[in-house]
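Lab notebook: predicted structure, single chain.

Context: the supervisor wants predicted structures on file for every construct in the current expression panel, including those that have not yet been purified. This is the next one on the list. No modifications to the sequence; it matches the entry in the shared construct table.
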Amino acid sequence: MFGATMEDTEKGKGNQRWNSAISNLTDLSHNLTSIETLLLKSAVYVDPNTYNRSSLTSEQARTIKILEQRVETLEREVDAVISASAHARIEKREAEAGQKAAELQAKEMIKELENTTKVFELHMEELRTKEEEISKRDKEIKLLKTVVKTLGGNDLLESKF
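Prediction complete. Output recorded below exactly as produced.
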């Protein structure tokens, strides 16, 4: 008994599937009939020449649209390149200004070093002159000491010097 019910259930499910499929096909048939009716009522029939011209016009419109999009893309790229170029020019000017400032600073430092060197040379010359003068006076003092010694003033020299 149990096996018979199972078989009946499967047959019932199979019949139900077939009934659903037939129902779907009937609905599909009604839908196709509705589409056919709509096409017959609202369809426009044209001769092949008119169809070819409208097809060509439609293709040209699509091509124009694609080309317009390409032009817009290229315009954005050109704008980006112009912007990048302007930015590069600004950076170049800033670098040139920095280089000029560094060159001016280097020139000022060189001039300052040259002036310091001249001052140093003048001081060295002055020191040499004073050293020569001191050396000359030292020789004069020695000469005077010798003269005083020879003239007999040994006692006088020893007490003062």
